[in-house]
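Need residues for this backbone.
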């Protein structure tokens, strides 16, 4: 169950990174940090550490959502 949820979270994070690519131009360091957290989430997932995978995913989401709010006034619509 946790593995399936973690897998869905990673899939949604990948899509969120793709639709947030515009962030890279103005906030490259923030976007790169979100990418690193996404990579870490995938690493933890492969090790079966779903708790840490969720944690890393949440950090990545938070970084991206913060820039959406700063630049567009609201977070992106849910996937």
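Answer:
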């Amino acid at each position: 169950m946790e593995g399936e949820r973690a897998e869905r979270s990673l899939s949604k994070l990948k899509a969120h990174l793709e639709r947030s690519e515009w962030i890279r131009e103005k906030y490259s360091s923030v976007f790169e940090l979100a990418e690193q957290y996404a990579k870490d989430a995938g690493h933890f997932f492969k090790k079966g550490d779903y708790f840490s995978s969720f944690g890393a995913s949440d950090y990545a989401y938070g970084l991206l959502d913060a820039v959406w709010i700063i630049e567009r006034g609201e977070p992106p619509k849910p996937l």
